[in-house]
Amino acid sequence: MRATSRTVAALAAALVLTACGNGGDGGDGQDDSAGSTCAEQLSVQFGPANAAPATGDTGNVPVTVTNRSGDECVLDGLPAVEFDAGSTMISVAPDESVPATKKALAKEASTSFTLTYVRGEGGGTKSLPVTSVKLRLPGASEPHSFKWSYGDVALKSDGQSPDASVTGFQQSGD
CA 33, CA 107: separation in Å to the nearest integer? Predict the structure, then answer.
């Protein structure tokens, strides 16, 4: 099962980035660097999570994005998230209440978004055995990949869509 058309649509909607500068020092440690002019200067940290402890519980994974460039960087759109379950890649839908907006990040400023999921029954037919997550920032040519260690993700009643959502960019820090 491959959600190609949905994946392409979600990624296309999220790939607009403007008003970015050059320079910066890249990421550090747990951070991962993005792959386009401005996005290359953004570091991404995945977690730590408020993990769902049992089947049917909801978990939240915060994702922090920091501008490591010497100039302002503007994120225009929503982050795109995909669950990787081996031979299956499935897009996570944005939260229905979140409009795509522009988020200006000053030098060294941060923003965040949250991946919310419902834990599935391990090995069950109504869950997705996620092994990693791919995050794509607006304007990035390459996704950031992170190991998923929070158990299976429940599927919605359609049996194909993950019971998960991603928020838009939120204010972080000062």
Answer: 16
